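Checked the freezer inventory, then went back to the computational side. Two predictions to log before the end of the day. The first one is the construct we discussed on Monday; recording sequence and C-alpha cells without edits.
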Amino acid sequence: MKRIFKVKKNEILIPQELISKDKIPAQVKSRMEELTCLINEKVAALRNAPEGRLRISMQRKSQKPHYYHVTDENTNGTYIPMENMELIKALAQKGYDQKVLKVAKMQLAILDDFNRRYQSNVIEGVWNGLFRGDLVIPAILDDELYARCWSSIPFDGLTLDEGTPFFKTSDGRCVRSKSELIIAETLIRMNIPFRYECPKMLGSVRVHPDFICLNVRTRKEIVWEHFGMMDNPDYAVGMVKKMDSYQKHGFTIGVNFICTMETSKSPIKPEMVKLYVEKFLL
C-alpha cells in the first residue's frame, strides 16, 4: 500500500520499503566479538590441557570402546583404564577444543575480510545521490529522511480546552503535565520522532496515547503511555483497564509499548526516561 509523505515543498510517493534496514554490519561485529571470546577461551583451556591426544578403539567382540593416551613418544598410545575417566574426558575435550579453535579462527578471518570489503547503506545512497530524487520512488530511505517523512504525516490530536494548564516543549508542542514535558524533552534531545496524543484504533475503540514514538533504526512505532496519578484508586483502576485493552490488541511492554507511572510522593525520574529511550527507541 502506498503512502504520501510531504517533505519540504515536494510530495514524494513512497511504497512500502522494499528492503529492510542494513543490519549486516552490526550482526557481523557481534559475531566477531563472540568468536574472539570463544577463541580466547579455547586458547586458555588448551594451555591447561594434558599432553597428547585421545585414541578410541572399538573392540570387535564386546563392541566397547578402549581409550588410549597417544603422545609423541608413544604413537600407539597407552591404554587408559575406565577408572581414569577424568583423563579420558580431558583428552576428549582437548580434541574438541582444538577443532573448535581452528574453525573459529577461520570464521573470524572470513568475517574480518568481509567487514573490510562490505559497504553498508549503499542502496540508500543511490537515491541520495540523484539530482532529481523526487522523480523516482526509492526502495528504501535513509534514517533522516524516513524520520522527516514520518513526522510530516498529519493527524488530529486532542485539543486543549480553554483554561486547561499546559507546558510548552522546546520545539513548540503543548503537553499536559510536567512529567509529559520531561518525556517530550528527552525525546527531542535524543532525536526521537514522536506524535503527541495521536489517535490510534484498538479494535473499534479510538484512543489517544500520550506518545507514539518512532524507532528510526527498526522503523517500528512504539506507544508510550504515562500514568501520573497512581495513588488515586479510581485512576489506578482505569489504568489497569487501559493496559488490559492494549494487551488484548497486541501491545506488549518492552516490544511495542512503554509504560511509565508515578505517584505524588514518587515522581517520574528523568534518568529512567532516558534509560527507556536508550533501550527501546535507539
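The second is the one RB wanted added to the comparison set:
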Amino acid sequence: MSLHSLKSLHTLEHGTPVHVAGWVRTTRQSRSILFIEIHDGSQFATTQCVIDADHSQYSVISKLTIGSSVRIHGQLKTGLTGKHKHEIAIDTIIVEGMADSDYPLQKKRHSFEFLRTIPHLRPRSNTFYAVFKTRSILTQGMHKYLESQDVTYIQAPAITTTDAEGGGDVFRISTLDPTQPHQDFKDDIFKQEAFLNVTGQIHIEPFIQAFQRVYTFGPSFRAEKSNTSRHVSEFWQVEPELAYVDLVGLMDFIESMSNAMIQYVLDHASEELAFFDEFIEKGLIKKLQQTVSEPYGRISYSQAIQLLVDTDHAFTVNPTWETGIQSEHEHYLTDVIFKKPVFVTDYPKDQKAFYMKLNDDQVTVAATDLLFPKIGEIVGASERETRLDVLQERIKAHDLDEQLYTWYLDTRRYGTVEHSGFGLGIERFMRYITGMDNIRDVIPYPRTPGSADF
C-alpha cells in the first residue's frame, strides 16, 4: 500500500485502510488504550493513533519515545474527541528509528533561547514548524506574484569584487595563509580582493536592458557587528529591478507585492497563522487583514523629521536632519502616528548608496524606505542614477574605486533607461507576518556576530 500523508486523510472515508509514517509527538495511556500522536510534516496538526492493550505489538508500542519515527498500517476511524476529527486504529507498526531518551523536545514548553541552541531540532516543535512552513508559503507567494507581473528571475553571484553599499561591512574571501605577512591579493584565488555579496542588485541591473523587469532572490552577507533582535550576518532578500519605473511607480509596485505576499499567506497558511494568533501575537490575523485592506502612508524624510520634532515624546536620540531616522523614530512613525506601514521618501544623499538617483535639489536622493509597525525598515528602494557623469561623481564621493565599477558604468554608456529597484528583507517581513520577536527565530540557521555554529 502506498503511503498516505496525514493531510490527505480527511479525503478518505472512515474504515479505509491507511498506511502513514511520521514522528511521535506524544504518547499517553488511558485505561486499556494507548494513544500516540504523530506528525509527518504535511500539515500543522498531528494525527492520533490508538491501540488496545491486548494487541500483539502493545508492549513494543508502549515503549515508544517522543521523537521516534514510525510506519503505521491501520484503519481510519472517527475521532473520539473534538480535537481529532479522525484517528487511526493501529493494525501493525514498524519502528524505523527509536529516539534516545535524552531527545530535547519533550512534552513541555521550551524557551526560544533554548531552542536557538538546537536549530537542527527546533523545526520539530510546533512553533518552528509553523515558522518555517509560513516562510516557505511566503516565498512561494513572492515568486508567484513576480511571475504574474512578468518579472524574470536572475541568479546573482554570491561572490563579488565590488561593495555595492559602500559601507565596508563585508566578508572577505581569501585562500591566502593568514599567518604569512605581506601577502598580495594578486596571489589569491581570484587574483584580487573578493567578498561575499551584500546585494545582488548591481549584478542584475544590466539584465533589465535585456528583459526590462528582473529580480534575484538569495542570501546577502553583512559583517556589521550589530548583535540585536533585528540583525543577522546572513539574511535573505528579494531584489527586483524594473525598467521605465519612477519612484512613485516603484512604491506602488512594492505595496502591491507586499500585500500580495501577505494575502497569499492568509490564504495558504491558515493553521499556522491561527497558532501564531493564539500563542505568539494576539490579533495577528486581524492585523494582517487590515494591512492589506488599507493604503500605506507616504511622507518625505523632511516631513518625517518634522513630525518627530513636533511630538513631545522623549527619544533617546533627538530627531534631526543630520542624525537621521533611528529605529526608535521608525517605530514611533509606524506604531503611534500612522499605525500602519509607511513609505519615507527623499533621504539625504549622504545617508544612501551611490547608485540612488540625485534629486534636483542636489541634497536628497529619490529613495524610499518602507517601514512596518513594530519592525521598522523592511524595504530599501530607489530610482537608480542613470546620468553617467553624476554616477561617477557619486562613486567618487563614496570613496570607491571607479575601476571596480567600470562594468556597471557600461549599463549607463550603452542604452541606459529610467529604472528603479528595491530589496525586501524576508526575515524582517517574516517577523511582521508571524509575530515572532527575534530575527534569529525566523531563519533556519541564524548567523550572528560570535555565532556561526552548525
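For RB: The two ends are 38 Å apart (CA to CA). The mean pLDDT is 95. Let me know if you want it refolded.
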